[in-house]
Amino acid sequence: MLHDPKRYTVTAALPYTNGPIHIGHLAGVYVPSDIYSRFLRLQGKDVAFICGSDEHGVAISMKAKKEGITPQEVIDKYHAIIKQSFADFGISFDNYSRTSAKIHHDTASEFFKKLYDKGDFIEEVTEQLYDAEAGQFLADRFVIGTCPKCGNDEAYGDQCERCGSTLNATDLINPRSAISGSKPVIKETKHWFLPLDRYDAFLREWILEGHKNDWKPNVYGQVRSWLDDGLKPRAVTRDLDWGIPVPVAGAEGKVLYVWFDAPIGYISSTKEWAQREGKDWEPYWKSDDTKLVHFIGKDNIVFHCVIFPAMLKAEGSYILPDNVPANEFLNLEGNKLSTSKNWAVWLHEYLQDFPGQQDVLRYALTSNAPETKDNDFTWKDFQARNNNELVAIFGNFINRVVVLTNKYYEGVVPQPNDFSDVDEATLTEMRAYPAVIASSVERYRFREALGELMNLARLGNKYLADEEPWKVIKDNPARVQTQMYVALQIATALSVLSEPFLPFTAAKLRGMLGITSGAVGKLSWNDISLKTDLLPAGGQIGQAELLFAKIEDEEIQKQVDKLEATKTANAAENKVAEPQKDLIQYDDFAKMDIRTGTILEAEKMPKANKLLVLKVDTGIDVRTIVSGIAESFTPEEVVGKRVTVLVNLAPRALRGVESQGMILMTQNSEGKLVFLNPDTDGVGNGEVIS
Prior knowledge:
By secondary structure, the protein is α+β, with helices and mostly antiparallel strands. The strands form eight sheets. Strands 17, 18, 19, 20, 23 and 26 form a six-stranded antiparallel beta sheet that branches. A four-stranded parallel beta sheet has the order 3-2-1-13, with helices on both faces. Helix 6 (217-229) crosses helix 9 (301-315), helix 11 crosses helix 12 and helix 16 packs antiparallel against helix 17 (503-513). It starts with 6 loop residues before the first strand and ends with a strand. The mean pLDDT is 91.
């Protein structure tokens, strides 16, 4: 762990440009990395906060084929959406680049060429799956088949998403091409491999020994598992027509594997930033006094803790990451987030439904961050955190301070008089919060840090509630000047310390307190502990504005309904029709007497949860039919229903009641029973269906 670094390079995982950004991305990577970077800047640190769009790889090609457009059109579309979403949510990247940029192609090609020239790669002819119908080798994700470990019929050639097993495409049982659907053949092809096994000793010493006390247990444990399983050479090239061409002779038609080129995107993005700002990029990647931190999700741990460090070590001139504080996954309403199934809260859609409430989502996601285990986002929890915490604690304190200052002093910060023991104790406690919050942030415990920030707001609320300036003003106005001065100092501290977590709120609060410019406007993190007058007496503050608004039940129900609609649509789309039964002859069908009828009476069968006893007018008689529909319908709902009845079914006794026929039903996409009935008026009971 590097102490007192001269500069920081902070990277956030490059989002893949085959879809928009959702709350899982925000919670897992981008809000934590933004909190950390903003915190460092408030401390006056030299920070390069780097990201960009990951625009190569087979998923882009698959998306393009599916939408009938070119890969370039895919990446241009989603790069713009993703970049705008980050800007809208205040993710304060110093540079947001893209891997299709020339500077990245050049950087990745040079990196590969250096390792190639040093002899760091293994060149091998391997057998891979080939789609003869499509005329191309099949990348892992273009192969679908049965997982040999769990039997999942929809496993990909690189991973089974049901059991999580890492696979090779040739491991799959009954593989098929995702392009043509045909069965692929095996064909020889030449590729270059990074021999990860050569770096086993280095990785064990660097991570398992060097970082056993400061890396998160979930990260450390996954790395140990990989190393204990034994590292193997890993291909750095693949047969694909979309990506960075392999820059050596004999590699025509091959590109750099996306896992190899994507992390180099951090370096090329830093170069792009440095060129724009007139800086030298190399110290941010090659100086030992630089602290490099990668923010990622847990699905990227192996790439950032094993493979990329091995690449950097092989190249020889780069520093290694000081920490890789990967988060676990965020689920949504009890189910795994899924881009393909639209089971997500998309950032651009959130802002349409909750305009101007970016910080509410940032707060809810940080409060519930999946830092050590998978967590679940629910709309009810989101509402509760807004109403019970942001509105009732933070917003309530600020509103009271600003309203009372305007009421008593026309918005002028009062001159304090003698400080009581309570005042001194409160200010001393306030000055301790920067160090307390910083300790949590520096250990990547952002949920804990946010909790401490809210404790500072609670301190302000408690101070006002205990001191009751609205009562004291009648008999001791001089005392109230001190009380309001103390409360305004806490409000000012909140305006600075909340900035990494709630940047839009912090900016609004600084505007209300009149500290957006001048000497006061340059308050730093450490000033909260060191300065005796954060908001000097005599300064003018503005009028009160609500920082947060209560979110009503109707707004939350709208979001829940939207997800339910998605669930219904997914069920309908994924519903597989039952296979056709054995063939019958016309005479078999002709034996069935199916007629229209009407339910006249209905009652529940005693001691039977599923059965209703029906009286049905079949047109030829009124008969009793027992039907297993009680879990879908009440007796009152079915009386008067037009139905289709198999009338010549042999009678059968059910719980002592003779049933003389069968009501014909089907199910909708939600599994709910539906009556089959005539949809045209004028069809009387007893009409024969043929």
